[in-house]
Design a protein that fits this description.
Helices cover 27% and strands 29% of the residues. With 257 residues, the chain is α+β, with helices and mostly antiparallel strands. A hairpin with a 2-residue loop joins strand 9 and strand 10. Helix 2 crosses helix 3 and helix 3 crosses helix 4.
């Protein structure tokens, strides 16, 4: 039931605040009961621990209008990640534009995707985590206001923000455990930037705020990068994600025993 308060996005006072999801509600529905037969609850990775839980991370953040504004980009991403039939449409890009020498990674063409919606979604999830007491590890610092203004439609895209997307497969090319996993936003330093990342139903989003030491995100940025490609590869070759997936995999095996 809504509570009265100030909307975190538009600033409306005495608004009927919605119980907003940090990671969209549809993500929990997609993975519930699909990855593991006989268990109705999804596996949830938080603070480098994997647990089975029915809990969905929510907070009273937005007025009804702002909830709908955020919901529009949430809906678009829901059409690109794990579907109920097990496919991940974003991975079905018609053209591969680059393959690494070891063939562990490839770059997918993004010309058929709504890149602005993907960027807004990624930035909005990080911002939601920042303004919510439920995800205390995320702090946008002095960049919070420019990001809020962008998401509310008051200003243009913030020039210090870069968004990249990666998706994972098993070595045989089929979908991976990542398709059935939610990882709440995490952060780490990257030169003079802070990199925030999260995973939802097979799509790994990274949002860099500031000047990153690793310039690859500048090249791949879906807003201003020259390449604007989506990286696809084996999670076993991804250092940033591998440890968490191993944690989740171990939890999955324990749950099956």
């Amino acid at each position: 039931m809504p509570v009265l308060g100030q909307c975190k996005l538009c600033g409306l006072d005495q608004a009927a605040l919605q119980d907003s999801h940090i990671v969209p509600k549809w993500a929990y529905k997609r993975i519930r009961g699909k990855a593991i037969k006989g268990n109705p609850h999804p596996m949830h990775v938080k603070d480098k621990r994997a647990v089975t839980t029915s809990m969905q991370v929510t907070d009273f953040l937005l007025c009804s209008n702002c909830e709908q504004r955020i919901g529009r980009v949430d809906h678009y991403v829901s059409t690109q990640c794990l579907q109920t039939n097990g496919t991940v449409p974003l991975r079905e890009a018609p053209q591969v534009i680059w393959v690494s020498d070891d063939r562990n990674f490839a770059l997918l063409d993004t010309s058929s995707l709504e890149l602005d919606a993907l960027c807004r979604f990624a930035i909005s999830v990080i911002w939601r985590a920042h303004v919510s007491a439920m995800v205390p590890q995320i702090d946008l610092g002095t960049n919070a206001e420019s990001i809020r203004a962008y998401l509310s439609g008051e200003t243009d895209y913030p020039s210090s923000v870069h968004v990249a997307v990666q998706t994972y497969v098993e070595p045989d090319g089929h979908g991976s455990l990542a398709d059935h996993t939610i990882i709440l936003p995490e952060s780490h330093s990257n030169g003079d930037a802070t990199a925030y990342w999260f995973l939802v139903c097979g799509l790994h989003f990274e949002v860099s705020v500031g000047i990153p030491a690793d310039e690859s995100i500048l090249e791949l940025c879906l807003h201003c990068g020259q390449t604007k490609g989506v990286l696809v590869g084996s999670w076993r070759e991804s250092g940033a994600f591998q440890n968490l997936v191993v944690t989740a995999s171990e939890a999955l095996q324990a749950r099956r025993r």
